[in-house]
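Reminder: ligand-aware prediction takes two inputs, not one.
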Amino acid sequence: MPSSSADLSYLSDPAPARGALRAARSWLHTDAPSLSLNGPWRFRLSATASVAEDFAAEVFDDAGWDAIPVPSHWVLQGDGAYGRPIYTNVQYPFPIDPPHVPDENPTGDYRRRFELPERWSRAERVLLRFDGVEVFFRLWVNGVEIGGASGSRLTHEFDVTEAVRPGGNVVAVRVHQWSAASYLEDQDQWWLPGVFRDVTLLARPAGGVEDVWLRAGFDGGRGRIEPEVTAGPAAFPVTLRVPELGVERVWTSPEDVTPFDVGPVEPWSAEQPRLYEVTVATAAETVTLRAGFRTVEIRGDRFLVNGRRVVFHGVNRHETHPERGRVFDEEHAREDLARMKRFNVNAIRTSHYPPHPRLLDLADELGFWVVLECDLETHGFDAVGWAGNPSDDPRWREAYLDRVTRTVERDKNHPSVVIWSLGNEAGTGANLAAMSAWVHARDTGRPVHYEGDHAGEYTDVYSRMYSSVLETEQIGTDGSRAPLLHCTPAQGARQRTRPFLLCEYAHAMGNGPGALDQYEALVDRHPRLHGGFVWEWRDHGIATTAPDGSPYFGYGGDFGEVVHDGNFVMDGMLLSDDVPTPSLYEFKAVVQPVRFTFGGDADGDNGGVLIANLRHSADTSDLRFLWRVEHDGTPVASGELALPAVAAGGAARAPLPPVPVARDAETWLTVEAVLAAGTAWAQEGHVVATAQLDRSGPRPAPAVRPRTGWRSDGGTLTLGSAEFDGGTLSALAGQPFAGPRLELFRAPTDNDEGVSGAVEESDASVAGVSNAALWRRDGLDRLTTRRLRVERAADALRTLDRVSAANSARWVTVESVWSLEGEELELRVEITPSSGWPTVWPRIGVSFELPDGARPVDGARWFGLGPLESYPDSLRAARTGRFSAGIGELSVPYARPQETGHRSQVRELALTSAGTEVVRIAALPDTRGRRPGFTLSRHTPQQIARAAHPFELPASTAAHLIVDAAQHGLGSRACGPDVWPEFALRPEARTLRLRMSAG
Ligand code: IPT
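Here is what comes back for the chain with IPT:
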């Protein structure tokens, strides 16, 4: 029966549910029987919601239907047969017409059979649990409609006792991609419909434990349990046991269930996630929990756990995977969290919804401070001045309360959860305040966070996203009169009385962010500032293929979306395939929990090294402190520092070993804190923290040897093994090698293309216009050259060029002087801009092209900063040493190709072919001691800038070497502040001196 007349009004009903939905409760580990309904289901997709509901009948011929796995998202199944994913950040992919959604509403019908086990006949009730369905679903069992629900990343349990029967049963589910609930789920991510988390049938025994909540506090070395047991009178006596503590409590009636002291315990912390197994048992059911004893508290403007201030070195974690989307994979999640630990991440904000429930078990176990966020975002109303925002509309109140109730009830037992977050970017309003009031009444043991409560009207911590370094400092500063965003002076004063955290900062899109260390420095100076959560942990690329079959990670616009937000979803410190980007190494170095300060005593380095333990509560007894000395990157001595355990918050000075200082090489001392034993997340010897001390003696660079007797020349000649054509190098030792050419352009990073952030802090930025747009306007990507002069002397050649761009009256003078200096060929380049260049420059460098010949350049070895790329405001992970890499490894495959690969402060560089040196280059410091950086790539900046995806890069026939006297910083202007002035590259005169020789 075609039922276009069907009543679909529920799709535009803000009410979160219909039918026999059960009250929210904890997601418990129990010995009561359960049956997973994961696996293949019969599936049919319709373009609208109005198809007949006859499929839900017990008897229905679904033989012609496809099979789809549960859990999965239908748009990621069937190779496009079931539609495509849509990526939007803030925009709604449907008209803003709340609470209505379009008739074009992809609707997935699911069916499967299951056998109800015989022994389940003894169960009192049978529940069907859905851990995640996007976005609205209805449920039938044996043709009986049970109910429906929304709240995609929330758990819903239905009572199906009356509908099931022993033996064969049929369950049918209808999922609509859009409903009123879609207005509440406008998070910055892919829209991915389907039954994407587990479906489980639960037998509830008579006299079982319906719910239990163990608030496990820690005070003065002792643990205290405040229990709450939800069970019928028949369930009693209920027995709680903590075998490890020898605790047993028998409660004969609900009145007995009262708080009690468990005696001395080890506390739980993110650093030492000590868990105690607890069982809560009735005659019919045993529930097993893991208690972590910890007390969360706000005292003044401090956020404390177990009485000690917490500093969040956190990340925003979305559930995303290139093939699975938001479908959870426990092994992958565990490895992902272990990776976080290895990179010194100590906190997770579950942006912007509760993760799969098992994730919190892993967080308890591995140790993270978790800000658990509710599934709520209405960001798209921003576009209409927040008119009609559900957050302040009484019709949506019930939906808001339902969401926060399901969030808190499901995960309330986890010690890792230390803050509840109401959601993200949902404006402000009475419904959010009501959520907060509900949480406050239900859980007095954890504060409430919501960034959108700018004025601090109903939440407990002050939170911001992407505030600049300057602004963040003002938030932390007592007596600062600087106004706070969206606050009156009085509201600002109120916010300054609270702990502050950055729920998002350091937007890690593409190459960046810069300035991580500047934010971290503030945390030290201003205890009100409790750190924050980098946006974000990983890229959300979806695995797909280019027309030519090349695999790649798709982003917005790659799936034919009507509206989309491009690559704004590729903003993680991890690439889509789990590969950490250099930003994650930078993060690790910046937040390392041990700080080394050399010297400090009157007698300089003889003061040894001060080792400060910045941890929350763990001492350093799990660490060993190793040292080594290198001469020009070659190890010459090593050992271990003797140091007693340093308590958290403490510091101790260790004497340094005698350092043999080389006369003709740089001498560097490196110290490392490494794990003394393996942990659940890293092996013994894993480096937790590191620092370097430069002990080099003075080694002045050779002076420029002046030449005389210059005369005009055609410039076609040889100097040593170098061949020149028209004054330009054409070959070195028989290898084709062309250059130098002035290069001022870099393929714009996502931050270079960004327009956000307050510009007054960066003298270089223009409000609303990206730096990249200014560079293109000024023609930095299309420089042309006019050769003014070619001259030679006895063993030297020099050229003078005027470099400029079409329609520009500004220029750069480039003088290149080649000279034989003994065995070596020196190139000195003097780069002098004309006056009047208006913007920052991406770089000041010269490029060389090495066409593929008999010995194509395919790698580099260098002595300088490495091993990864570094930029002026992202240098902390880099160390001075000797490194090598293949040419492919020198570039990071960012989802959208952009500037990558710059290695700073190079001293020696060898370009290699199949491991042997083709050319060797020594970089001399300029008169101020500054050293150049280098980039070796298969593509030019111009080629990279033209590609939207890696597969669009043209076939390459040459290696390109760029030696930069300077590079511009990174900043995080894709969503945040521009490059800090100190790291912004203003046009200026620069000198490069390179000594080259054939390999
Ligand atoms: C902020 C969002 O909260 C987050 O989900 C993400 O979209 C991030 O931006 C950018 O990637 S909101 C923004 C308007 C600051």
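The radius of gyration is 32 Å. The pocket of IPT is lined by residues 89, 188, 424-425, 465-466, 504, 507, 535, 568, 571, 975 (CB under 6 Å). We will return to this case in the review session.
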